Structures are given as structure tokens and as C-alpha cells.
């Protein structure tokens, strides 16, 4: 592993593809050749709610809002997000995101994770759906 690596997030492929129209996600962990750090870019079209929420077994994450606004589902609570907010989420907490009228753009940063990954989809509805 080299002493440093530069990767432009916007030059990485959109890993979401056609699975969720209205959502883009780019993952830099492999490209950065990092052992303990994950960095990803997320862009939500205006008023788009991600079709699934998730939690982790061991990976803590922080989300930095770089533009737009929106809401995050954090277990059974909904929190508002605006530019330069940083939301830290413990591994076991369910999280999901919804863009506001101007869309939502975030950088997600995660710590070490098992080689096989540890993300788990959460099927329970958002608190405002039940």
C-alpha cells in the first residue's frame, strides 16, 4: 500500500445503476486502497426517498451533507438535514435518507468493516409510514 492515494469521487462509476432511479452512489474504499476507511458519495434527486434503509454489524458511519437538504430516518426518529450537517450513526442503528426539494448530496465515511461486509437491509417502514 502506498503512503497516499488521490481519487476523484465523481470519476468513479455509479454503483447503484438502474436499481434505484433517482439515486447515485460511488464507493472509493477499493480505489483508495485503504485498510480501515470507507468513503462514498451519494446524490439523491429532489424529494427522492431511498427504497431501503440499512444497519451494520460493526461499521460506524458519518454522513456529511454537502448540498441540498433532506431527512434521515434514524431507527424510529426522523431528523432534518441541511448543508454541512454531520450525522454519526452507530452500527446497529437503522438509517435511511430522503431528499428535500433541492435534492440531497452527501459524503459518507465509514470505519473498518469485515472483508465480507456487514450491511443489513432493514425492511421495517419509516416512522411516518406506520
Task: Tell me what you see in this structure.
This protein has 130 residues and is mainly beta. The chain has one helix at 29-32; strands at residues 23-27, 38-44, 53-56, 61-74, 77-81, 86-89, 95-110, 119-122. A hairpin with a 2-residue loop joins strand 4 (61-74) and strand 5. The protein is globular.
Radius of gyration: 14 Å
Mean pLDDT: 94
Q: What count of helical segments does DSSP give? A: 1
What is the overall shape? globular
Report how far apart the termini are.
Answer: 48 Å
Uncertain segments: none
Strand content: over 45%
Summarize the structure.
By secondary structure, the protein is mainly β. It is 3% helix and 45% strand.
Key features?
130 residues, globular, single chain, two-stranded antiparallel sheet, mainly beta, 8 strands, six-stranded antiparallel β-sheet
Amino acid at each position: 500500500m502506498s503512503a497516499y492515494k488521490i481519487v476523484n469521487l465523481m470519476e468513479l462509476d455509479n454503483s447503484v445503476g438502474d436499481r434505484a432511479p433517482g439515486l447515485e452512489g460511488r464507493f472509493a474504499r477499493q480505489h483508495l486502497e485503504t485498510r480501515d476507511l470507507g468513503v462514498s458519495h451519494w446524490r439523491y434527486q429532489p424529494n427522492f426517498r431511498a427504497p431501503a434503509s440499512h444497519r451494520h454489524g460493526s461499521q460506524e458511519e458519518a454522513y456529511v451533507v454537502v448540498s441540498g437538504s433532506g431527512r434521515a430516518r434514524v431507527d424510529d426518529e426522523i431528523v432534518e438535514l441541511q448543508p454541512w450537517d454531520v450525522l454519526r450513526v452507530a452500527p446497529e442503528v437503522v438509517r435511511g435518507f430522503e431528499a428535500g426539494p433541492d435534492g440531497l448530496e452527501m459524503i459518507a465515511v465509514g470505519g473498518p468493516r469485515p472483508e465480507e461486509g456487514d450491511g443489513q437491509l432493514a425492511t421495517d417502514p419509516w416512522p411516518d409510514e406506520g
